[in-house]
Write a structure and sequence with these properties.
single chain, 85 residues, mainly alpha, two-stranded antiparallel sheet, 4 helices, binds zinc ion
């Protein structure tokens, strides 16, 4: 790797949090949830990628809304059942 390539890589790494923050609708809405107490919080997603996600009740808050979480659990449950068959 040349020095020029390394510089370019470093430059794109700096922009990575912003890129990540805009690559998924769950991230662009900028909201996280705690599943223990149900609290939700507005966040700056790009900032969270840099300095970490907010925590609540001792756990990292999730970018999935409670509805989405429910769907996920249901999906997994169905998949598990299909594996058994
Ligand atoms: Zn909580």
């Amino acid at each position: 790797m040349t020095l020029e390539q390394a510089k370019k890589l470093a430059e794109s790494m700096k922009k990575l949090p912003d890129t990540l923050a805009t690559c998924h609708p769950k991230l662009t809405r900028g909201q996280v949830w705690c599943f223990k107490c149900g609290r939700s919080q507005k966040v700056n997603t790009a900032e969270c990628f840099r300095s970490g996600w907010p925590k609540c009740c001792g756990e990292t808050m999730s970018i999935d809304s409670p509805e989405e979480r429910g769907e996920m659990i249901l999906k997994r449950f169905i998949e598990e059942k299909e594996k058994v068959r």
